[in-house]
Amino acid sequence: MRPDLRALAGRPVIIGAGVAGLMVALRLAPEPVVLLSKGPLGTGSSSAFAQGGLAASLGDDDDPALHSADTLAAGDGLCDDAIAKRITRAAPSAIRDLVRLGVRFDRRAGGALALGLEAAHSRRRIVHAAGDGTGRELVRALVEAVRRAPSIVVLEGFEARRLLVEDGTVVGVLAAGRGGTASFETTRVVIATGGIGGLFAQSTNPNGCFGQGLALAARAGAELADLEFIQFHPTALAGHLRPAPLISEAVRGEGAVLVDETGRRFLVDEPGAELAPRDAVARAVWRRLAEGHQVFLDARRNPGARFDVRFPAIAAACRAAGFDPVTQLIPIRPAVHYHMGGVAVDAAGRGSVPGLWACGEAACTGLHGANRLASNSLIEAVVCASWVAESVSGAVASAGHRRRPPETLPLTPDASRVRNILSRGLGVLRNEAGLRSTIQALLPLACDGGPVSDPALIGLMIAVAAWRRQESRGAHWRTDFPERGAAQRSSLRLEEALAAARTLDAGCTPIARSA
Ligand SMILES: Cc1cc2nc3c(=O)[nH]c(=O)nc-3n(C[C@H](O)[C@H](O)[C@H](O)COP(=O)(O)OP(=O)(O)OC[C@H]3O[C@@H](n4cnc5c(N)ncnc54)[C@H](O)[C@@H]3O)c2cc1C
Question: Could you identify the atom of ligand 1 that is nearest to the CA of residue 204?
């Protein structure tokens, strides 16, 4: 039964129920909150897919300073140093909190947490669960905790479509829910809508993660940051499955190698070979595919017969797609995996528009810079959820009364029309001509006001950010600007992106902003 929405007026509204949204709701307890979940609680999130784990300096030989240094090195000169220090310092106690919330992490024989090693981490610090089932276990435990919390009203099947803004302040959320349009009056909104992989033809993200939270924030006038930095995972299972099953780096860590159809190990001369940084491996695979080759992961010798025990979920996904990883080569290709950019937030998770916060992958805290260190995103979401909750509960609560008449609910967004456009122009390797034609193709779609409008709008903002960054750094690689330029983070507002796009293209009607 649909609750009386008027009775919920004034409560903070959290949009999205992955790890970030679930944790913010739990951290706000006992303050009453509303948690909007697009699908049934626990489904449709990248969080549930996570295989590797959460990074935290828990080992005797480890220290937050080492974790922070590894994070900065991966971020290629663009991380926010203070944020990296603060998050890595808070990570160990966040893991202990998760244990208290009921997350069953894998343990060694003596009972201590088992710590895994991942590429570009200088110490073993990856806390994991059920082997490669970390995300599933994390979401299970957090969903149970949320269900037990009397302060959290969970509204399943509710999709936020617009933020309501008056005098430059958020005053509510307009959503599609069971029974039609749902309007929430509140001056405290947390965007926790995850990543943008759903905008691309090949992605490891669930389809529902297509940057909707970024569109909500951008239309409300908020600043977005570092949008051009998109991490491609080099080894997603090739084919037409959406989302593309991910074959974790840990498989290469156990000795699997990358070969082309001739059996040649084309990465063998790269420093680090198959365990080179994620962006370097993604570029090498992308180039090989662009040259007309096929690329495979060969796990037959290593991990070989141990594959099923060490990576049960990955083995099952490969077999479901028709490949036995123990006896056959696995066809792979890079796929969009993680967005370093997002809603620009301060250390408390506040966006640039009053009443707006963001947490998790939808937020850009500055932790990841130009490239995310593996397993740093879930821990960022868990740690930052506390700071967001503290800030939200300290803000003045108000029902956010609107003077204007209610807005009409925008149509159900549809990202399918932009996927090929974005995949062509915003791949692993980018250049002026590709970005220019991506912007020209997306501008009329972003302005058309129909179902494609929001996905096209975010694609357009990403393309403009990538077009403006005339250098190669981290996950952003311009074949026409292969050198590094000045180390500067980027920020973009909707009007600015549209103005830049219009310099390349004329003839677009004004775009709808939150009113
Ligand atoms: C295959 C895979 C493996 C990964 N492995 C790891 C790992 O080992 N370690 C690590 O640290 N990170 C990993 N990541 C990244 C990590 O999982 C994500 O960055 C993190 O889970 C994001 O959490 P989130 O809560 O911000 O977003 P999500 O978990 O994606 O949750 C966002 C939710 O918001 C919902 N939503 C979107 N728009 C709306 C709307 N308008 N209204 C209502 N709801 C909405 C979505 O449907 C979704 O359910 C992995 C990602 C993938 C895809």
Answer: 53
Q: Determine whether 264 is an active site residue.
A: no
As given in the structure block, the two tokens for residue 331 are 């066809």
For ligand 1, whether the C-beta of 360 sits within 6 Å is yes
465 lines ligand 1 (CB under 6 A): no
Instruction: Indicate whether residue 211 lines ligand 1 (CB < 6 A).
Output: no
**Residue from 193, 364, 383 whose mutation best tests the ligand 1 pocket (most atoms within 8 A of CB):** 193
Model confidence pTM above 0.90: yes
Neighbours of 470 (CB within 10 A): 12
Ligand 1 atom at shortest distance from the alpha carbon of 44: 49
Tokens matching residue 300: 């037959």
Q: What is the pLDDT along the chain (515 residues), one digit of tens a residue?
A: 677 888 999 999 999 999 999 999 999 999 999 999 999 999 999 999 998 899 999 999 999 999 999 999 999 999 999 999 999 999 999 999 999 999 999 999 999 999 998 888 999 999 999 988 899 999 999 999 999 999 999 999 999 999 999 999 999 999 999 889 999 999 999 999 999 999 999 999 999 999 999 999 999 999 999 999 999 999 999 998 999 999 988 899 889 999 999 999 999 998 889 988 889 999 999 999 999 999 999 999 999 999 999 888 899 999 999 999 999 999 999 999 999 999 999 999 999 999 999 999 999 999 999 999 999 999 999 999 999 999 999 998 776 666 666 678 999 999 999 999 999 999 999 999 999 999 999 999 999 999 999 999 999 999 999 999 999 999 999 999 999 999 999 999 999 999 999 998 655 555 666 75
Q: Is the CB of residue 421 below 6 angstroms from any atom belonging to ligand 1? A: no
Ligand 1 touching residue 203 (CB < 6 A): no
Q: Which residue has the tokens 């609910």?
A: 409
* Contact indicator for 455, 44 with CB cutoff of 8 Å: no
Alpha-carbon distance 342 to 260, whole Å? 35
Q: How far apart are CA 358 and CA 15, in angstroms?
A: 9
Instruction: Compute, in angstroms, the gap from residue 214 CA to the centroid of ligand 1.
Output: 14
Residue 55: both structure tokens together: 């990074």
